[in-house]
Amino acid sequence: NFQYQTAKEVLDILAGSKPHTHRDLKEFIKDHIETLASEYKGSPTNPYQKFWQNKDMPRSENYCRDRIAEDLEIRLKSLSIHVETEGTHKAEKSSDIKIINRERILPIEVKKNKNKEIWTGIKQLQEQYSIDPKAQGYGIYIALWFGKGEQYAVRKDIPFSKPQTAEELRVVLESLIALEDRHLLDIIVIDLSHPKTSRERRLVKKLGKK
């Protein structure tokens, strides 16, 4: 199905402008989501807090999904790329988020790390959403990491211990994708856990030396 891109399309890709292929759309949206993830965690205004009801209670999965969709919509609006929540696909199946770019779509599934379906969500994305002809097999799976105290147990058929960090969760989830499909699907773990205080960081550093 390969088609050469025109010079204008190549320039658009290099400039971060409108995507022109399904894979370009996936990479383009991935970049925006990863930028949002870094802003949620690293901004001095602590935007990660909007994903928590209070210090001990994360918001619901759908609430978090809607906030991410809203933030994506703001970033993509000028490019006429639309963001839908509960986007309908083949056989009336609905992904958490559907990106619409003219004749192309990109399904996105979102799961909290305390959701027991976090380990089956990738299969759900592949079998129900990314099979949409307009998606051509591409999709993005977002896992929301609220901390190791807020995670669901690893299933017995997954040969890994419980992830202790957002990065460990990403590695476990990526291992669930067949090697031949890894160019089609991306795993993004958004770290929304409470940052360590300066006192906690000093303690961890001290214990590490011991």
Total helices: the number is: 6
Shape label: globular
Helix and strand run:
HHEEHEEEHEHEH
Q: Percent of residues in beta strands?
A: 15-25%
Give me the count of strands: 7
Rg, Å, rounded = 18 Å
Largest sheet: 5 strands, mixed
Helix residue percentage: 25-40%
How far apart are the termini?
57 Å
- The computed structural class is alpha/beta
Q: List unreliable stretches of 5+ residues.
A: 197-202
Strands side by side in the biggest sheet = 3-4-5-6-7
Kindly report the average pLDDT value: 86
Oligomer: single chain
Topology overview:
Elements lengths: L6 H8 L7 H21 L9 E3 L2 E2 L2 H16 L5 E7 L5 E8 L2 E9 L8 H9 L9 E7 L20 H10 L9 E7 L6 H12 L1
Could you describe the 3D structure shown?
This protein is of the alpha/beta class and 210 residues long. Helix content is 36%, strand content 20%. The protein has six helices and seven strands, in the order ααββαβββαβαβα. A five-stranded mixed beta sheet has the order 3-4-5-6-7, sandwiched between helices. Helix 5 links the parallel strand 6 (139-145) and strand 7 (185-191). The protein is globular.
Short structural description:
By secondary structure, the chain is of the alpha/beta class.
